[in-house]
Amino acid sequence: MIAEVSGTAEQTAQFMKYGEKLGAHIATNIALTNVKTNCSAACVHQLISDWIDVATKDDLWSNWQVPH
Questions:
Q1: Neighbours of 64 (CB within 10 A)
Q2: Which residues lie closer than 8 Å to 44 by C-beta, 6 or more apart?
Q3: pTM of the complete model beyond 0.90
């Protein structure tokens, strides 16, 4: 099951795993769609770090949906 979540990294992670309960197989991480033209490298780094922190804590796979 794939879930598209438009929330924080922690909200997205809850769709994949909530405590011991398994959820979606893939919850698309749309954090990078929040990158705007004025987003600096530090901004992009923070978006990625927010997801990595949550994903590694809950042993989740990283995935990204990027704007085109």
A1: 13
A2: 32, 35
A3: no
